């Protein structure tokens, strides 16, 4: 008979947080040195200690956001089809295929189409003309679109001395400043593709092709009929939380941290990483581990003061007459007491035998 494997549990009052910090902090020191060794190996994926700091700081957007988009079965085997879909998803701006100039004397914007760049990106002059339609009245002259902005700016109100209640209609005019602002908007207008997704490339996976691109926009990418909506992933944890919810964000934190450590050739037990992910997400939103997140919300005054902004925490505690109950590890070390973890948490009472 096969003996049943017993899962090793954690002893009562074990200092799991300290062990978790130690297990990730120790290989983290090697990571900084190894980061340079791995430079250029990863396919434009952010790695090393900077990425790990990004994850635990719960940054709104990573330095190098990446989105992986898997395709439906009918597209996965054909590379040409995948490349066509990748081209559809990559965002192409007006500034990529045309020169945008503003004429402040005539108060018009000129969009001069570059045929060479347009051909390389697969963009036609008709597509450019359609993209700038919303900015005002336009007329075409030899691959150039001249836009007369329709956005009108109100003149500054003049102080009226009349006491009449009738509201006079103020004259609306287009100023040179408004034209210059609109010119920048024209440059950033999208001709084709999904907002926030750029430089899409086709990569050969295990048995299929998939698309990897810079940036992120899960909802925008899912609009494409070729994309498999069940298999789309971005390394932007906040985007995963916004679209799929907190459980998906928690899984993303575990995956991202595991990927960083695996790429460096470092082994950390998955339960330590899961503990960090749980601590960051238990309240329903992704919180950072720092003075603006978990460390700044500790119960004890001394615990908060020991981390960062010491004087601020002590002054606030005095002003609000807060009480220090000495429940954490840090607080008890400061006052020189036994730390309330492990055997320090257990109190024994011995009953003497009567003679």
Low-confidence stretches: 37-43, 152-164
Note the overall shape.
elongated
Instruction: Give the CA-CA distance, first to last residue.
Output: 53 Å
Helix content: 25-40%
How do the helices and strands follow one another from N- to C-terminus?
Answer: HHEHHEHEEHHEEEEHEEEHEHHHHHH
Radius of gyration: 30 Å
Q: Estimate the mean pLDDT confidence.
A: 83
Beta content comes to: 15-25%
SS-derived structural category: alpha+beta
In total, the number of domains comes to 4
Instruction: Summarize the biggest pleated sheet.
Output: 4 strands, antiparallel
Number of helical segments with 4 or more residues: 15
Write a brief structural summary.
The chain is 40% helix and 17% strand. By secondary structure, the chain is α+β, with helices and mostly antiparallel strands.
Record keyword descriptors for this entry.
alpha+beta; 355 residues; 4-stranded antiparallel beta sheet; Gyrase A, domain 2; 15 helices
Structure description:
It is built from 15 helices and twelve strands. The protein has 355 residues and is of the alpha+beta class. The protein folds into four domains: 16-62 and 243-281, no CATH class; 66-91 and 195-234; 92-153 and 172-192, Gyrase A, domain 2; 295-335, Orthogonal Bundle (DNA polymerase, domain 1), CATH 1.10.150. Strand 3 and strand 4 form a beta hairpin. The model is unreliable at 37-43 and 152-164 (pLDDT under 50).
């Amino acid at each position: 008979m096969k003996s049943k494997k017993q899962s090793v549990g954690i002893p009562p009052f074990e200092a799991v947080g300290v062990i978790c910090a130690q297990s990730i902090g120790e290989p983290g020191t090697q990571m900084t040195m190894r980061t340079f060794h791995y430079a250029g190996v990863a396919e434009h994926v952010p790695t090393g200690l900077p990425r790990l700091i990004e994850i635990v700081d719960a940054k709104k957007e990573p330095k190098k956001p990446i989105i992986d988009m898997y395709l439906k079965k009918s597209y996965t085997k054909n590379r040409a089809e995948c490349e066509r879909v990748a081209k559809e998803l990559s965002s192409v701006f007006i500034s990529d295929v045309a020169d945008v100039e503003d004429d402040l004397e005539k108060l018009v914007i000129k969009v001069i189409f570059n045929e060479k760049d347009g051909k390389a990106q697969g963009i036609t002059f008709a597509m450019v003309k359609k993209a700038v339609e919303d900015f005002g009245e336009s007329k075409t002259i030899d691959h150039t679109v001249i836009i007369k902005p329709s956005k009108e700016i109100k003149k500054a109100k003049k102080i009226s001395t009349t006491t009449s209640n009738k509201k006079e209609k103020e004259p609306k005019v287009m100023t040179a400043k408004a034209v210059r602002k609109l010119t920048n908007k024209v440059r950033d207008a999208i001709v084709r593709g999904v907002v926030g997704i750029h430089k899409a490339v086709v990569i050969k996976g295990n048995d299929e092709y998939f698309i990897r691109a810079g940036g992120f926009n899960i909802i925008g990418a899912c609009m494409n009929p070729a994309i498999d909506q069940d298999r789309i992933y971005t390394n932007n944890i906040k985007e995963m939380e916004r679209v799929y919810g907190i459980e998906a964000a928690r899984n993303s934190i575990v995956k991202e941290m595991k990927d960083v450590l695996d790429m460096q050739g470092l082994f950390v037990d998955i339960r330590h990483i899961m503990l960090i992910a749980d601590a960051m997400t238990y309240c329903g939103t992704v919180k950072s581990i720092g003075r603006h997140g978990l460390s700044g919300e500790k119960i004890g005054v001394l615990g908060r003061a020991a981390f960062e902004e010491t004087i601020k925490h002590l002054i606030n505690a005095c002003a609000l007459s807060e009480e220090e109950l000495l429940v954490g590890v840090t607080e008890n070390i400061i006052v020189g007491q036994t730390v309330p973890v492990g055997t320090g948490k257990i109190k024994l009472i011995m009953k003497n035998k009567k003679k």
